[in-house]
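This part of the workshop introduces the protein records we will be handling. Getting from the letters to the tokens is the skill we practise here. An example says more than a description, so a record of this kind follows:
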Amino acid sequence: MQTLILPITDSNSLAHALDVLSGGGLVAFPTDTVYGLGAMAFDANAVSKIYMAKGRGQEKAIPILISDVDQIHRVSSGVNDYAVKLGKKFWPGPLTIVVPRHPTIPDVVSPLKTVGVRIPNLNVTRELLRLPGPLAVTSANMSGQTSPSTAKGVNAQLTGRIPLILDGGVTPGGIPSTVVDCSGEQPEVVREGPISLEQILSALE
């Protein structure tokens, strides 16, 4: 497989990315943390290619990136009102919200009854996400290797394994997102990050 690298700011590049994704392929692109490797979230065969490309086991769930808060209802069934409220308060940004997984989300995305959802704080990434809709996205690296912050870094690890890399320069990086479980009656912080429990509780008052 030949790996093509295109600038993400080129409108033709986004159109090509949509073609690849719609055809069940994988695309690597920048996020507000590191480069991500994405597939159509509702396409089980496409998502399975993420594990193969990375050499990763399927026991770990893959988060879903969306472009706006309303899309959460496409990937979650029975989402709590407070989960939507947190999304409207902190998205786009470093908050991953764990919600009940919608029945249309294949098991290969998450072996659990829940799934993590986030809106990245990078305009060009959200523009990409608006085209195909929700994407299952994990870091664009070989399993166990460093998560790359440049397209060159992605290519060094995944060349020949994926068809397309969108080059958006160096990613902003930073601290991994706060993960809050919103599948129950009360929010529970699973992983601490830039957004504190106090901020989360304050937003729900």
Observations:
- The chain has a mean pLDDT of 94.
- Strands lie at 4-7, 27-30, 35-40, 64-65, 95-100, 114-118, 135-139, 164-167, 178-181, 188-191.
- DSSP finds seven helices and ten strands in the chain.
- The longest strand covers residues 35-40.
